[in-house]
Write a structure and sequence with these properties.
Helix content is 58%, strand content 8%. By secondary structure, the protein is mainly alpha-helical. The protein has one domain.
Length: 269
């Protein structure tokens, strides 16, 4: 999930009008699975948890493939926790003034991709350095898990109606009357576009690792392709443009792409 600027409004139509049949897909969604008083279990929370579990399982298999210690899986757990915390804290900081701090912090939506990226990678690197695990090899083993876990999380974004795209008349366009923010205008389901691209990337990463492609190349390719995917999808998102007609997510994605090319050019060790 990414930042949605306070100054950017989603397309809204008069909600007092009857909703056409073409919106039936969105009306069948359940953003909140269980509510006990003010406590909510959201579909995004469930999918995020599932993404962490599936990612950890894939990472464990890839660690074994690389002959790395099983304990290195702790870096994935730390990275997942750090990523979620970083994503939520940055989003909350960016939207202070729109609502009370704790209302924003514990809302069912609102995560910053940049905050999650920095928090997840940073926390994982701290754990790897502390235990003296080989950084490049461990990160390369984690790339398929990162892609799959991210894809599952994107499905969660779709279920709560966050991070959607621009208005569209395509047959698969979806409305989110309970979204974040709500819209009954059909839009691009960019969450599913990104999920599909990430699953394809995960398949490629596993093939490259099975073919014994060098760890630096696998890691670099992951950074380049995941960054390029996000950069491209932002063109049909409604995030605020901050400089050169690009959103903050695009600027970060561009930096990730550059970092990936730098890694790819490193001599394999």
């Amino acid at each position: 999930m990414t930042t949605r600027s306070a100054g950017v409004r989603s397309p809204i139509v008069d909600r007092r009008r009857p909703m056409p049949d073409r919106y039936s897909l969105s009306s069948a969604m359940y953003p909140v699975i269980l509510r006990i008083g003010t406590f909510e279990i959201t579909s995004f929370g469930v999918m995020a948890g599932l993404g962490i579990l599936v990612g950890w399982w894939i990472f464990s298999r890839e660690l074994a493939r690389s002959g790395l210690p099983e304990e290195a899986g702790n870096a994935a757990v730390a990275g997942a926790i750090g990523g979620l915390i970083g994503a939520k804290l940055l989003w909350t900081a960016e939207h202070l003034g729109e609502d009370a701090f704790f209302s924003l912090l514990f809302s069912r939506g609102g995560l910053s991709w940049f905050g999650g990226f920095v928090g997840g990678i940073g926390t994982g690197l701290v754990v790897m350095r502390r235990h003296r695990w080989p950084v490049i090899a461990t990160l390369a083993a984690a790339t398929p898990a990162l892609a799959v876990g991210h894809a599952i999380g994107r499905v969660g974004c779709f279920l709560v109606g966050d991070d959607y795209g621009r208005p569209s008349n395509l047959p698969w366009a979806v409305a989110f009357p309970q979204g974040l923010p709500p819209t009954v205008v059909r839009v691009h389901p960019t969450q599913l576009y990104e999920a599909a691209g990430l699953l394809l990337l995960a398949w490629l990463l596993i093939r490259w690792r099975r073919a014994r492609v060098a760890d630096v190349s696998v890691l670099g390719r992951y950074l380049v392709l995941s960054g390029a995917l996000r950069f491209a999808i932002e063109f049909i998102r409604i995030n605020e443009r901050v400089v050169f007609g690009m959103s903050l997510a695009q600027l970060v994605a561009a930096a990730v792409i550059v970092a990936g090319f730098v890694v790819v050019r490193k001599r394999p060790v």
